[in-house]
Amino acid sequence: MSTASTPGVVRDAAGGPVKTGPSGSADRAGSGPGTRTAYPLYVAGKLGGAVVSLLAVLVTGFFLFRIIPGDPVSTMTRGAPTSAAQLAALRKQFGLDLPLWQQFTDYCAKALTGDLGTSYQFHAPVGELIMTKLPATLLLTGVAVVIYSALGLWLGTRSAWRNGGLGDRLNTGVALTLWSVPSFWLGLLLIIVFSVGIGPIPGLFPTGGMESGDTAGFARILDVAHHLVLPVLTLVAVGYAQTLLVMRSSLLDEMGSDYLTTARAKGLRDASVRRRHAVPNALLPTVTMVFINLGHVAGGSILVETVFSWPGLGGLFYQGLSVPDLPLVQGLFLVFAGAMIVMNLLADLLYPLLDPRVGR
Hints:
The chain is mostly helical. It is built from 14 helices and two strands. It has helices at residues 33-64, 72-76, 84-94, 100-112, 126-161, 166-179, 183-197, 218-254, 258-265, 270-281, 283-299, 302-307, 313-321, 326-354, and strands spanning 9-11, 17-19. It has a two-stranded antiparallel sheet. Helix 8 runs antiparallel to helix 11 and helix 11 (283-299) runs antiparallel to helix 14 (326-354).
């Protein structure tokens, strides 16, 4: 039978066969003028949404921390004899004597130029403080995110593929338990068991901090790794559970699809069907979760860093809230939220590469 007489096959102007859909109409993915302009419009829409979100964060960050009870000047001068004139001079120095609308316009004007202000308690530019603490946060949360994202994806895939088996029930039960555990409580429990020691278990790890301070060279690297174990374990235990459950749910939705039955009917091995067909189609929700986790890398974990006295952005944010140090908490809030918005934007831009239908 010739190609011309085969149902579902048509020829283009040059006489070549063109793949058609089930209805026999020509299917030229990515060939129409609308397809060529769809992805740029998609990108423009996502960029516009990200800009609007950043502006909303800028506004929210200013007013949110103004409702925190407490006077920064009174808190910083607590325990020191200070006259009313001195308090007024400090308020003027920090710009707290200005009308709220003027404080807001000054804040927005400086933030849009990259100036996050000067910390009340540290008397240093907020940007410099953030850059000083950022490496410690990137180390802690970066290591944790890489570990629990890979672990969650792997275990979530295996659990869904063997749905209902002993391994699936065990993984799901452990993940649900850990996902419901507060991270600060788990961190305190690990400190009690593995730092202080309980019963026959000796104290194996430091109770907090990033390093002992008396090492150098390779010994310092080992010392930092030693201090990393418990906080990373805390973040991994809570984070992998969420990734596992999302990946498992997404893959279960794909399990009954016809294309998997077709792939098996072609003689593909079960591992190939899972790796080449099922997992790529189940990745979109998990990609969002992974990129959100990457956004947490910049933000750190306030509770875990505080529990383990880790010298990162999370601990710095906690110190700022205790005053409240308005320029510091506003700047950190902008960095935390901005990291999340950027990572969500990157996930949105990656979707069309995983599923071309998204960008059309």
